[in-house]
Amino acid sequence: MISLIVAATENNAIGKDNKMLFHIKEDLLFFKNTTINKTIVMGRKTFESLPGVLPFRKHIVLSRDKGYNVENQQVEIKHSLEEVLEEIKFSKEEIFIIGGEEIYRQILEKNLADKIYITRIYKTVEDADTFFPKIDEEKFQIVDKKVLNKEAIVYVYENISK
């Protein structure tokens, strides 16, 4: 099962200058609790924006640079989305795509996501440079929601077109 997990504003902004726009304690805790002991897949820029390797998770990092390497047993480098899909195709666990924009877009365009966990932050950021793609409401429907605080709500979407 492939799931996307993201925090996005009302205008779908998710980042600026390779940094997250917000660090909401409740959302970070939700992310940690949801992805702990799971495999997380991300692009190189997303990986490099992290404070380090996230404990208790297997990391798969996508990079077009064939020479890109990370000396850590928890990190595996892949050079195409097809390589990632080959790696996870027999997995029974929920695999989390954690960013960035390009990977989210590819997964959604190919209709590969089974679930989307989106923390909707009720603000607009006009000068963001990274955005989450628009969710196709004909393919996905909200199946759960959880209020984190007065400015953030997690919505869980499931793919109803698969």
Give the helix/strand layout.
Layout: E1 2-9, E2 13-16, E3 19-20, H1 25-35, E4 39-43, H2 44-49, E5 58-62, E6 75-78, H3 81-88, E7 95-99, H4 101-109, E8 115-121, E9 130-131, E10 140-149, E11 152-159
Parallel strand pairs: 1-7, 1-8, 4-5, 4-7, 5-6
Antiparallel strand pairs: 2-3, 2-9, 8-11, 10-11
- In total, the number of domains comes to 1
Major sheet description: 8 strands, mixed
Spell the H/E element sequence.
EEEHEHEEHEHEEEE
Number of strands: 11
Q: Write out the CATH superfamily name.
A: Dihydrofolate Reductase, subunit A
**What is the C-level CATH assignment?**
Alpha Beta
Helix content: 10-25%
pLDDT below 50 for ≥5 consecutive residues: which ranges? none
Radius of gyration: 15 Å
Q: Kindly name the structural category.
A: alpha/beta
Helix count equals 4
Strand order of the largest sheet: 6-5-4-7-1-8-11-10
Question: Beta-strand level of the residues, as a percent range?
Answer: 35-45%
Catalytic activity: (6S)-5,6,7,8-tetrahydrofolate + NADP(+) = 7,8-dihydrofolate + NADPH + H(+)
Pathway: Cofactor biosynthesis; tetrahydrofolate biosynthesis; 5,6,7,8-tetrahydrofolate from 7,8-dihydrofolate: step 1/1
Protein name: Dihydrofolate reductase
Pfam family, one: DHFR_1
Q: What would a concise description of this structure say?
A:
With 162 residues, this protein is α/β, with parallel strands linked by helices. It has helices at residues 25-35, 44-49, 81-88, 101-109; strands at residues 2-9, 13-16, 19-20, 39-43, 58-62, 75-78, 95-99, 115-121, 130-131, 140-149, 152-159.
